[in-house]
Specification:
Elements lengths: L3 E4 L2 E4 H10 L1 H9 L1 H8 L6 H12 L1 H24 L18 H4 L17 E5 L8 H13 L5 E5 L13 H6 L5 E5 L2 H5 L4 H5 L10 H16 L2 E4 L3 E3 L9 E6 L2 E9 L4 H12 L11 H12 L7 E3 L2 E4 L1 H4 L16 H7 L5 E3 L2 H4 L11 H9 L1 H18 L1
Parallel strand pairs: 3-4, 3-6, 4-5, 8-11
Antiparallel strand pairs: 1-2, 6-9, 7-12, 8-9, 10-11
Protein name: Lactosylceramide 4-alpha-galactosyltransferase
GO biological process, one term: glycosphingolipid biosynthetic process
Catalytic activity: a beta-D-Gal-(1->4)-beta-D-Glc-(1<->1)-Cer(d18:1(4E)) + UDP-alpha-D-galactose = a globoside Gb3Cer (d18:1(4E)) + UDP + H(+); a beta-D-Gal-(1<->1')-ceramide + UDP-alpha-D-galactose = alpha-D-Gal-(1->4)-beta-D-Gal-(1<->1')-Cer + UDP + H(+)
Length: 406
Amino acid sequence: MKVEHTCEGSSYSAASSVRFLFFFPSLQIMMAVSGEQAMAGERMLRMPSCLLKPTRVMLSHKPWALFILIFVFVSFAYHKLYWGIWEDPKSRGPPYGLSAEISCAHYVPSSLNIAGGPSPSTGSVFFVETSEQTTPSYLFSCSVESAARAHPTSRVVVLMKGLAKENASLPKHWAFSLMSCFPNVEIQPLDLTDLFSGTPLAQWYLQPQRQQEPHFLHVLSDACRIVLMWKFGGIYLDTDFIVLKDLQNLTDALGIQDDDELNGAFLSFKPKHKFMELCMEDFVQNYNGWVWGHQGPELLTRVFKKWCSIQTIKSMSCKGVSALAPEVVYPIPWQDWKKLFEPVSALELRKLLKNTYAVLVWNKLSHGTKLEIPSQALLAQLYSQFCPATYTKMKQDSEELSRHAV
């Protein structure tokens, strides 16, 4: 029989005390030993029955009672901390002041010449997000928009690891709504096991210790781009590029970053190209995930030097693969990334970008820098001209935040 005792709206049952003793067997021994003390407690001044038994334990076994209280408190704190840290960010909703609803008619004029959609005869443009992030930034949105505008007849494929394969709908975020306004943009889940299957990187990816390496997400991105180029061909771009012109004319090519190093932020190759096959082999044979860039720019530089039997990188074409001059896709050296936030005249901008197809913004270095919108800063002008829909959203959000700040 379960006997209920109530005290100020709360309840305490004999069954509860049995369960309590089950989880703390050491207390069964202590309570048996203290039976006489418990009997004496009955002759004490009566207190509410719901507090009687806990009080006896507290008085008779102070060290144990203190230990139990500390244990319960720490367990509770750990539980709250754990679930606070691992709470799904998507459940928190969009940032304040940023609407997830986008009017395509407002942001993307119908006069834009992409109504026909992509053509199967042209290669795809690929973007990859290897983290679980599903809240694209303004720069991410600008990268995709500028590529979609510059390649109206090409598929612009955005692969994101954070998207669940079984979920047909995209997360509620303004950037997904805006990118979806372009009929040639496709946003898909990134299945890494499937992507790497049938390549030398399949076994490498399945080794769990790789994920403990300090640069794993960047290395994973390096792996994805060379496999995409080998399997499907087309164009690969990092998500911090702003595209100015059609890149389809730059075939079997990659760009020179500085004096003696190539960069894989832009790649353009036909499928099953031998150069990309050699890159995959080098990725596995000379793997070192603990050194920044070893699997990215350094890998491409190593393979290109072997490919051409040269010691120094320069603008050239060798055995059908072109190393493009820095101004083609890396007009702003990474050392000078702050120039992106400095004002330039329209004449200076045209001169700077005369021979440029795309501009890398070096987001790893520049992401914490404030960009005034609108302004004459180089980056602001690039947004305005080459991803006007994203730029309009940036201005709208900036104005809304300013109103709330007043």
